[in-house]
Amino acid sequence: MKKVEPRLQRQRRHARVRTKVKGTTSRPRLCVFRSLNHIYAQVIDDIKGHTLGTASSLAPEIKGDSSGKTKAGVAELVGHLIAKRSLSQGIKKVVFDRGGYKYHGRVKALAEAARQEGLKF
Questions:
Q1: Would you call 15 helix, strand, or coil by DSSP?
Q2: Which of 13, 53, 72, 77 could cross-link with 100 by S-S, CB 3.0 to 4.6 Å?
Q3: Which secondary-structure segment (H or E) carries 33?
Q4: End-to-end alpha-carbon separation of the chain, Å?
């Protein structure tokens, strides 16, 4: 039996999700990417093809606060940051794109933190 790489399985799931999830000007897409050590979030308008805002665990605002926190704790900080940046641009509603990952752990922490900050999805 041929073994399929987990990375390829995630990419297939992500492609399946992306057929249904589209970011518009009124409701852009909040896209999450999770690497082994970091987590990244982007707010994207798919119609124009523009990235409206970004946040990651590498951002200077988070880098100082993240020492001693778990990966889920850092993801929560990223969720707060992306929500603040989106709200400052007048973006209140987004479509959540989990990127083929399970809605669990770091992805869930980021999403719930963004909701707490005031983003609707």
A1: helix
A2: 13
A3: strand 29-34
A4: 40
E strand or H helix at 9: helix 6-20
User: What DSSP assignment string belongs to 47-72?
Assistant: TTTEEEEEEETTSHHHHTTTTT--HH
Q: Where do we find the tokens 């987590």? A: 39
Helix axes 106-117, 71-88, angle to 10 degrees: 40
Give 69-120 pLDDT, tens digit per residue.
999 999 999 999 999 999 999 999 999 999 999 999 999 999 999 999 999 9
| Residues 1, 66 contacting (CB under 8 angstroms) | no
Cβ-in-10-Å burial (0-12, 13-18, 19+) of 36 comes to exposed
